[in-house]
Amino acid sequence: MDYTIGKQRNKHVILILLFIGYLVDYLDRMVMSVAVVSIKEELSLSPSAVGMILSSFFFSYALMQIPGGWLTDKFGSRKIILWSVVVWSVFTVLTGLVWSLASLLIIRFLFGIGQGGYPSATQKGIADFYPKNERSNASSILMSSNYFGIALAPLVAAPMILWMGWRNMFIVLGLLGVIMTAVFWVYYKVPRQERESNETNKVPLKEVLANLELWKITIMWFAAGIVNWGLASWIPSYLMDSRGMDMMSMGFFAALPGISTGVAMLFSGWLIQRFIPNHEKYYAAIGMLVSAVFLYFMFTTQSLVTAMICMNICMVFKSFAFTVTFSLPHKMMPNRVIGSAMGIINMGAQAAGFISPLVMGFMIDSFGTYDAAFWFLIGVSVLSIVMALSIKKPSKVISQNQEIVIHRRSL
C-alpha cells in the first residue's frame, strides 16, 4: 500500500483512539474531585489535606512531562502510550485500596507518574499522522477530550459512589484501562517512516529548552492552568458547600462547563486555522480576559442560574488559551522534537495543577470562604494575558529556526 494513502486512511482512526484514551485518562484523574467529598469524611480530613490530595497527582505529573516528552521523541509514541495507560490503570485500582492520608498521597503521586507520558505521546501521534497544515485542527479536536473528560467525571462518579462506594468506583475504572491498553496494542500502529525516524532520532533537548517562545507559551499556559485546575478541582466542593447542592445535582452542574467547553474546542482549532492564522496570541489573550471577568461574576452573584451561566462562559473562553497552547507549537517546532516541546509546555500546566488546588485549599481554610481563592485565579489570569501578548508570530519563529538549521548545516 502507498505510504501516503495509508497514512491518510489511518489518521482519523488514530485521532479517535487518542481521543478515547484521553477520556479514560481524565475520567480516572478527575473523579477524585468528586470522590474526595466522601474520602474526607471517611478519613476525617481538613480542606488543607484535601488540597494536598488534589495536588499530589499534579506534582508528579508535572515532573514527568519533560522526561515523558523526551522519551516519546526517543522511542516513539506507541511505546509511551502503552506504558502510560498500563501504569495509571494499576494505580487507579490501588486508589480504591488506600487506608490513610499518607497512602493516598503516595498512590496519587505514582498515578501522576503513569499519566505523565500520555500528553506528549498523543501530540507526537498527531505529528506522526497529520500533515503540518492540519495539525492545529486535529490537536484542538484531540484536546477537547480533556473538557469532555472533566464533564464526564462528575456524571460518572456521583452515581457510582452512591451505588457502589468510592473504593469500588476506583477499582472498576482502573479495570477499564486494561481494555484501553488492549485496544491501543491492536490498533495503534505508527507508520514505518516515522517509526524508523524515532529509532535513529537524537533529541536536542538543550536546543528545545533554549527556545524563548516556547517558554512564553509555557508560562501563558501555566497561568491559565492555575485557573483551569483550580476550578476543576474545587468546583464540586464549592457547589456543595457554598451553593447548597446535593451529590447528584452537583454532578450535573459540575459537568456542564466541561460539555460546553469541549464543544467549543471542537471548532476552536478550525476557527484559528481558517480565519486568524498567525494571530493566535490575540485569541488566547482575549479568551483569558473574558474568562477572568465572568469568573468574578460567577462567585459574586446571588443567583444560582447566573452563577452557572458565568461559570460556563468562563471555562469556554479560557479554552482559547488551551487551543493556542497545543496548536501553536506544531507551527513553531520540527517533528523530531514536538514531544519534548509539548512536554515542557504541559509541565507548566501541571505545575499549575499542583499549585492551584493546594493554594486554594489553604486560602479556603484561612479565610473560611471561597472568595479569596477565586480572586487568586483572577490575578493569575492577568499573567496569562501578558505572556500571550508577548509571543512572536509563528512565521517569525519558523524563519529564525530555519536560519539556525541552515547555519548548522553550513558548519
* Number of structural units classed as domains: 1
As a percent range, the share of strand residues is: under 5%
CATH architecture: Up-down Bundle
Assign the CATH topology. Growth Hormone, Chain: A
- The end-to-end distance, rounded to whole angstroms, is 39 Å
Order of helices and strands: HHHHHHHHHHHHHHH
Q: What value does the average pLDDT take?
A: 81
Radius of gyration: 21 Å
Oligomerization state: single chain
Helix count from the secondary structure assignment: 15
Structural class: mainly alpha
**Largest β-sheet summary:** none
| Overall 3D shape | globular
Question: What is the strand tally?
Answer: 0
SSE diagram, text form:
Blueprint: H1 3-42, H2 47-75, H3 77-95, H4 101-115, H5 118-129, H6 135-187, H7 192-199, H8 205-209, H9 212-241, H10 247-275, H11 280-300, H12 304-332, H13 338-367, H14 371-390, H15 394-410
Descriptive terms for the model:
single chain; 411 residues; mainly alpha; Growth Hormone, Chain: A; 15 helices; globular; disordered N terminus; disordered C terminus; MFS family permease; membrane; MFS
